[in-house]
Amino acid sequence: MIRRLAALGLCLVLGISAASAADRDVTIGEGKLHGTLTLPDAGGPVPAVLIIAGSGPTDRDGNSAVPGVKPATLKLIAEGLAKAGIASLRFDKRGIAASAGAMVSEPDLRFSTYVDDAVAWAGFLRAQPQVRCVIILGHSEGALIGALAAAKTKVCGYISIAGAGFPAGETLKQQFKDRHTPDAAMQTITAIIDRLEKGELVADTPAPMAALFRPSVQPYLISWFAIDPARAIAGVQAPVLLMQGTTDVQVSVADVQRLAKGAPAAKLMILDGVNHVLKPAPADFRANLATYADPTLPLAPSVLPAIIAFVQARQ
């Protein structure tokens, strides 16, 4: 009942009526990349949002193969957009869930592989008869993929949610420091990352770190570490919305502030009491992570109105 009332309240605030919508499974890439196209029952062309998932084994709904990570964040966004009469397309990234069969060999994988897939999905969405224009929305690592894709294809807007603002190598070093990694190990990790940032392969990776820095994944890491998110977002010519929660334990407000420097014309929204999966959450680490496991927990009240207002303004 709470969720139904929240949805109704959103429609009243925005001056719209709740629209019915239909989900359709779609594919591109010779049928190897899979997604869900949600089209509202509208009379004419509508704006459409391409939703890009974050890092790791995260599927089109925002759920992960990692135990305890089932927030359904992206599905909830798509449902909220549909109620507002906005189309959306969310997809399983290459190598994940229904798109598992599309994964290339690890040594051949590059960060640009995911960017090119997002560009292809944007083209597919733009070609739909009911779609007026495409807005790219990226969550977490999907925000960086989305920024690079938005600079390469025709879009009428770009939304970054909980996106990292610092290069991945720098972020990785900080994460190890925050975990109180012993000094000797920290020196080794720093040296490896420094070499990868310079585009150098590292053959002598110590055994404890081989899983993260194994030779087969190093070409991907090099391609990823070379990207500065603030520079990437500077390449987006369309209007930009930056969103960041204050109780996010994975990405900080400092990240979105750095992104804002790369896109000074962007609209910046700091969401009080909102965590990485866009649920209302306290700063307490355990209580915060508990929200990751509950797909029935609604998005924080500030999330959908901000996204919808930005999308509707693109019309």
In CATH, the homologous superfamily of the largest domain goes by the name: Alpha/Beta hydrolase fold, catalytic domain
Following the backbone from N to C, one meets helices and strands in this order, namely: HEEEHEHEHEHHHHHEHEHH
Share of helix, binned:
25-40%
Described by strand count, sense and barrel closure, the largest sheet is: 8 strands, mixed
Q: Could you say which structural class the secondary elements and strand pairing correspond to? A: alpha/beta
Principal-axes shape call? globular
Continuous helix count: 12
Q: What is the CATH level 1 assignment of the largest domain?
A: Alpha Beta
Strand content: 15-25%
CATH architecture of the largest domain: 3-Layer(aba) Sandwich
Write a concise synopsis of the structure shown:
This protein has helices at residues 2-14, 73-83, 111-126, 141-150, 168-178, 183-197, 210-213, 218-225, 229-234, 253-262, 285-290, 303-313, and strands spanning 21-28, 33-40, 46-52, 87-91, 131-139, 157-161, 240-245, 267-271.
Would you kindly provide a written description of the structure presented here, covering whatever features stand out?
By secondary structure, this protein is α/β, with parallel strands linked by helices. It has 2 domains: 2-166 and 229-313, Rossmann fold, CATH 3.40.50; 168-226, no CATH class. It is built from 12 helices and 8 strands. The protein has helices at residues 2-14, 73-83, 111-126, 141-150, 168-178, 183-197, 210-213, 218-225, 229-234, 253-262, 285-290, 303-313, and strands spanning 21-28, 33-40, 46-52, 87-91, 131-139, 157-161, 240-245, 267-271. The longest helix is centred in the middle third of the chain and has 16 residues, at 111-126.
